[in-house]
Specification:
The complex is a heterotrimer of chains A (223), B (194) and C (531). By secondary structure, chain A is an all-alpha fold. Helix content of chain A is 62%, strand content 2%. Chain A has a two-stranded antiparallel ribbon. In chain A, helix 3 (31-54) runs antiparallel to helix 8. The longest helix of chain A is centred in the middle third of the chain and has 31 residues, at 120-150. Chain B has nine helices and no strands. Chain C has 531 residues and is an alpha+beta fold. Chain C has 19 helices and seven strands. In chain C, the strands form two sheets. A five-stranded antiparallel sheet of chain C has the order 1-2-3-4-5. In chain C, strands 6-7 form a two-stranded parallel ribbon. In chain C, strand 4 and strand 5 form a beta hairpin. The termini of chain C are far apart. Classes of the chains: A mainly alpha (223), B mainly alpha (194), C alpha+beta (531). At the B-C interface, helix 3, helix 4, helix 8 and helix 9 of B face helix 5, helix 13, helix 14, helix 16 and helix 19 of C.
Chain lengths: 223, 194, 531
């Protein structure tokens, strides 16, 4: 459906919209972690989109941001508990990142931009699309970091044994480096992204997650 | 090193060794977005230090005296988030009434901090590291200082890059990301301290 | 942009060279200044050192050439800066390192630290050192292997730190183990050449040396010890850095006072890293950290009038907008609805918690049991009331009063053999001082005090670093050892039973684990054996 295509390609949260960067950089040390984080994010995103869409007419405008945050935080905790109970190993590796899904700008951004204005089914689709787009994005980053930084993909040795793993890539600065190269490549191919706007002006039109939206003169109407 | 985790070590750890932005990737959105000018960055940094320190204190108190004894650990994420949002509100209103000059200078950055992952991240980390009250406050303060150092350094670099003949594909976001890469590499030098 | 006779193609904010020579001329002087130390290095370390130098320079030049080609920019190889970068990097490398090291290092330094920022004169970080940092972080082991011609890899600085004597004379001349640019004598000669030809000015070398010495006296714990200070000055890359790298005209502050501050910063950081850290190379990081501060140092003397921002002051809206009535006046109705939502959410969470709590507890029980069975194979795990009571004592406050950092003894169980006799003990202990939070493990101990091994129940350290502690090969260091307490060996190469090699690059994780095991041993000796 159109929503899914939108989320994965046209408005990909990682590369085009530059949202959700904190987890994007942190969990991309291995493809397995990225897949796990992506799956959790899809789950939370879909559920929260549906719920917010269902209650969108009840939430008064002034308190919508705190309300969204509470709803999202609850679902994240639910996901956390479910993982601790039934997916123990995955929980061990994704530990501190799960609670951080709460402030993942993607969730709040979609809640504000879409779910609060559209029907539940469409919102769910949007959640799936954005979640998949996010997953594709972080898996791509993780792929390069793990392959060149560790010689493996998903834990399987792929590079020949004489290849010296460039450990920088799996450490913190490497995340910035890989993302920088990817965005640079996109710039070179003239793929328009919000990335440059975001760093130049501090504003990418993602008004939901921005605290100064009400007084901002740059506010654009979002579809 | 065995021995007490001294407060100095906590601050240095939080600010430099485990820098919140360059090592833990918390607070990236504002780090990349608001770092184009030194003045803005210093202002945001100051506000962040303020909020994180107080939030760490309040979160720790809440956890120690309410959540933990009642076995409500699983509510910590929600509770902390609400605390942070409320705190930012309160701080905003307080500053507006009592120190309007400071509010005008800083105030606009405060709402941005609510969604800054660094604040929530620190509060949660304090719990998982088992810090007591003083340690939590100090750790929060150190984190804020680290954030400020990182963002002000980046702003200094970005300002000095104006007028540079940057290759076209690198202009904009990639340039800032490469700055962050080099900064992260430099900070790596702190990783063996203590 | 046309190339005029002036040294720069456009006016940028980066420092301008102050002498009438062209950029090429300056670079030539630097290369001449480096000739003595280069020649000595090749003579002392052999042919491979020459290969490293050539590979580094070639890679630097090739990278810059290719970049200029692909980015359609005028070729800048003529200014010789790529040669200098390549040469400087090579001089910092171990003489026998595999050739991919200089090749990749130079390429990274030139490409990321220089070309991406616009090329010569526009980078903020010294490219040679950026390359070196890249190599240190990426190829740690190879970068610290200074062995050559069957001479050991122990550098004089390492010997100094472990308390052995070093030959100052040899260190000064350069007849020692270390990186290619090792001859302090030659470096000083080159440095004097640079000063005489006005290629560099005295502020940075002098300020950094004085500051280095002062802070060493303050922090090393040895007070004013001329022998130690001289050894520190002659060891490692400090001298090379002070004359050739910190003085890089592009990345140092513009004013002489700024340069003094920069020099002091370099000296201070070097002293801190040398005395408080355990990193192999302190010069690289000290200088690149100082590079980060250069733009700020340059701006320090010029106070900016408040309110004067640059065009497009991003987030600051106009004063009118600020004074306009703002949102977030909590109308009661909204507040009530928000409360309601919060209560529903809280209620939902409570439900889920009730449903999952038992399963979670069961999972944790299973994990703990599995850990016990790993360290006490073949034994039946039972609990002992007296032992459990002992553990309870320390539940609130932790164990050891800080002697082992913040550790908690979680549980102690007894392993019984087939005839029901106690044939081993397993102690579950947590250290809160892991890099990423709590590390919990089970330590198995035989009645005679031999440690059977460790098994982690909670470990969420950094993948590829701290998590390597979970590798069987690392854990095996504790296996079948009977010692009073273990000692962490950060440098590696442990020989005795009680020494545990730190996981490379993860000394915090390793230290936390060693402390936890020692706490378990201490508990065992004091509270279990008597039982």
């Amino acid at each position: 459906m159109e929503r899914i295509y939108n989320g994965i390609v046209k408005e990909n949260p990682v590369f085009i919209m530059m949202l959700g960067m904190c987890p994007a950089l942190a969990v991309t040390t291995s493809v397995t972690n990225a897949l796990g984080m992506g799956a959790c994010t899809i789950a939370v995103l879909v559920i929260s989109n549906i719920v917010i869409s269902l209650v969108r007419n009840i939430i008064p405008d002034e308190v919508r941001l705190p309300a969204f945050i509470v709803i999202v935080a609850s679902f994240v905790t639910i996901v956390e508990l479910v993982m601790k109970a039934y997916f123990v190993e995955l929980n061990a590796s994704l530990g501190v990142y799960i609670p951080l899904i709460v402030v993942n700008c993607i969730i709040l951004g979609r809640a504000e931009a879409y779910a609060s204005k559209n029907a539940p089914l469409l919102s769910a689709m949007d959640g799936i699309g954005m979640g998949l787009g996010f997953t594709v994005g972080i898996v791509a980053i993780a792929f390069f970091r793990e392959l060149f930084g560790n010689g493996t993909v998903c834990g399987f040795q792929v590079m020949p044994s004489f290849y010296p793993p460039v450990s920088l890539l799996v450490k913190a600065p490497g995340a910035f480096l890989v993302l920088g190269f990817i965005v640079m490549a996109m710039n070179a191919m003239n793929i328009k992204t919000q990335a440059n706007k975001k760093v130049e002006e501090g504003c990418d039109g993602g008004c939901a997650a921005c605290g100064v939206a009400d007084t901002c003169d740059k506010k654009e109407a979002k579809a | 090193m065995s021995g007490q985790t001294s407060l100095i070590m906590i601050i240095i750890g939080a600010a430099l060794v485990n820098n919140v932005v360059l090592s833990q990737f918390l607070g990236i959105c504002s780090f990349l977005g608001v770092s184009s000018q030194i003045k803005n960055s210093a202002g945001l940094g100051g506000a962040v230090i303020f909020v994180i320190t107080i939030a760490s204190a309040v979160a720790n108190l809440l956890y120690t005296f309410v959540l933990d004894p009642l076995g409500l650990d699983y509510l910590q994420t929600i509770v902390f988030i609400i605390v942070i949002a409320a705190l930012v509100q309160v701080v905003e209103m307080f500053l507006k009434k009592t120190m309007p000059a400071l509010y005008t200078a800083l105030g606009i950055y405060l709402p941005l901090i609510t969604t800054n992952c660094a604040v929530l991240g620190v509060a949660l980390n304090n719990v998982s590291d088992g810090y007591n009250f003083i340690q939590s406050v100090v750790s929060g303060f150190g984190t804020g200082v680290g954030y400020t150092i990182a963002i002000v350094l980046l702003a200094g670099i970005r300002e000095s890059l104006e007028g540079n003949d940057i290759p076209k594909p690198v202009k904009g976001a990639p340039l800032v990301l490469f700055c962050a890469t080099l900064m992260g590499m430099a900070f790596y030098g702190f990783s063996t301290l203590g | 942009m046309s190339t005029e006779t002036s040294t720069f193609k456009h006016v940028s904010s980066s420092p301008h060279l102050r002498n009438p020579l062209t950029t090429g001329g300056v670079m030539m002087n630097v290369v001449i200044g480096l000739v003595p130390v280069t020649v000595f290095g090749i003579w002392h370390f052999g042919l491979h050192a020459a290969l490293v130098i050539i590979a580094s320079i070639a890679s630097a030049m090739l990278t810059e050439y290719l970049f200029d080609l692909i980015a359609k920019r005028p070729n800048t190889l003529w200014d010789g800066s790529a040669v200098v970068t390549g040469l400087l990097l090579a001089l910092c490398l171990p003489s026998q390192c595999p050739l991919y090291v200089p090749i990749l290092g130079s390429a990274f330094g030139i490409l990321v630290a220089k070309c991406f920022f616009g090329g010569l004169g526009q980078n903020f970080m010294n490219p040679a050192l950026a390359g070196r940092a890249f190599l240190l972080i990426s190829f740690g082991k190879v970068m610290t292997d200074y062995s050559y011609d069957a001479v050991s890899s122990v550098t004089p600085l390492a010997s100094l730190n472990s308390g052995e004597a070093v030959d100052l004379g040899k260190m000064f001349i350069g007849l020692a183990t270390g990186h290619i640019g090792i001859s302090i004598l030659c470096i000083v000669i080159g440095g004097i050449w640079l000063l005489v030809t006005d290629t560099i000015s005295w502020e940075i070398p002098v300020a950094s040396t004085i500051s280095f010495v002062i802070f060493l006296i303050a922090m090393s714990g040895r007070g004013f010890d001329p022998y130690y200070l001289a050894a520190q000055l002659c060891g490692g890359g400090f001298a090379l850095g002070a004359f050739f790298m910190a003085t890089d005209p592009v990345t140092k502050p513009m004013t002489w006072s700024g340069q003094l501050i920069f020099g002091c910063l370099y000296g201070f950081l070097s002293a801190v890293f040398r005395t408080q850290g355990s990193m192999a190379d302190t010069t690289t990081f000290a200088i690149i950290i100082a590079n980060l501060a250069t733009p700020l140092i340059d701006r320090m003397p010029v106070p900016q009038p408040f309110g004067v921002g640059k065009k497009g002051s991003s987030v600051i809206p106009s004063v009118e907008a600020l004074n306009a009535p703002k949102r977030k006046s909590m109308i009661p109705k909204s507040a009530i609805i928000l409360m309601a939502i919060t209560l529903v959410a809280g209620g939902g969470l409570a439900c889920v918690n009730m449903m999952t709590a038992d399963t979670i507890a069961e999972n944790e029980r299973q994990a703990a049991l599995a850990a016990y069975e790993t360290v006490l194979p073949g034994m039946e795990i039972t609990s002992d009331d007296a032992l459990t009571a002992q553990v309870e004592q320390f539940a609130e406050t932790g164990y050891g009063d800080g002697a082992f950092g913040r550790v908690y003894i979680n549980e102690a169980v007894v392993g019984k053999d087939s005839s029901g006799n106690a044939s081993g003990y397993a102690i579950s202990v947590s250290s809160m001082e892991g890099y990423d939070g709590e590390i919990a493990m089970s330590v198995g101990i035989l009645p005679d005090g031999t440690v059977t091994g460790i098994s982690f129940t909670t470990i969420t350290e950094t993948a590829g670093m701290g998590m390597l502690a979970n590798e069987d090969s690392w854990k095996a260091q504790f296996k079948d050892k009977n010692v009073e307490a273990f000692k962490l060996n950060k440098a590696g190469g442990s020989t005795t039973d009680e020494e545990i090699d730190s996981v490379s690059g993860a000394s915090i994780t390793s230290g936390a684990v060693v402390n936890a095991v020692n706490a378990a041993l201490d508990f065992f000796h004091n509270y279990v054996v008597t039982g």
